[in-house]
Automatic annotation (TrEMBL):
Name recorded for this polypeptide: Alpha/beta hydrolase
Entry keywords, A to Z: Hydrolase
GO MF annotations in UniProt: hydrolase activity
InterPro entries reported in the protein's UniProt record: AB_hydrolase_1 (IPR000073), AB_hydrolase_fold (IPR029058), Carboxylesterase_BioH (IPR050228)
Species assigned in the record: Pseudomonas benzenivorans
One matching Pfam family: Abhydrolase_1
Residue ranges occupied by any AB hydrolase-1 domain in the UniProt entry: 29-257
Taxon lineage: Bacteria, Pseudomonadati, Pseudomonadota, Gammaproteobacteria, Pseudomonadales
Amino acid sequence: MKPAIAVVDVQGNFKVHTEFYASPTARKTIILVNGSLATTAAFAQTLKYLHPQFNVVLYDQPYAGQSKAHNSNVRPITKEDEAYILLELIERFKVDYLQSFSWGGVPAMMALSQRPARLEKAVITSFSPLLNAPMLDYLQKGLISLQAVDGVGLGHLVNNTIGKHLPSLFKRFNHRHISSLDEHEYRQMYAHVNQVVHLENHCQMECLAAIDIPLLFVNGEHDEYTSPQDVRLFAEHLDDCQFATVDNAGHFLDMEHKTAWTQTRDVLLGFLQGPALREPAHRPQSEIQHAVAV
């Protein structure tokens, strides 16, 4: 399964590495929005159940992965920049659905508030409108490592907190990836996290009323950082939203174990392919391979 690779020029401001996985039987296209420090490789597990059901678009932020060689990276980009890039890619690839992971939920929901005409549904995974005590503690410790450009320390922090439910193999890939980033990537994340911890409202709740498509929020049962309880606050601000909890899973959902992979798959496909959310009736075992995920 080889994608079509393209470096997309976003109105002369950014150059973005994209991967388009076409399916001859698919009628819809979905774009996936990465979390912090991640690259397209982070969606290796998700790609397995979305393709060939859909055409799938993956991309690296300008400062990360295979995009960073095409950009100057002299200053951190903002979440507004990331939302702007996402809107451009939605139009270019004629996207119907969107799925975000973790901090990718911020630019995703900012883009959704602009009401891109093509989008029909969106799935927001491992994200919460609240910065609860565990998340604030994680972010504040992360700031120390990021400011010191301590990739090794940051890798240990991620694996001991939001990544603590990952299999040991995935933790090794995570640590190797996080500890070997370029200096500008740590600066990028420091700027973002420093802004987040000083904001009362990191996901701009006042913009949510503009979102006019169905949303599904998916969180892990044991994710104390973006918990299933906290995410339900979105119901007070959105007209059409649903919630699903993946059993016995933490922050990384479909990467953590086979049953979580299958339940996540069934919940997402049920929402995207049907008029309403359906609970998975059967959870067969499915082989999981490695992926870098942050």
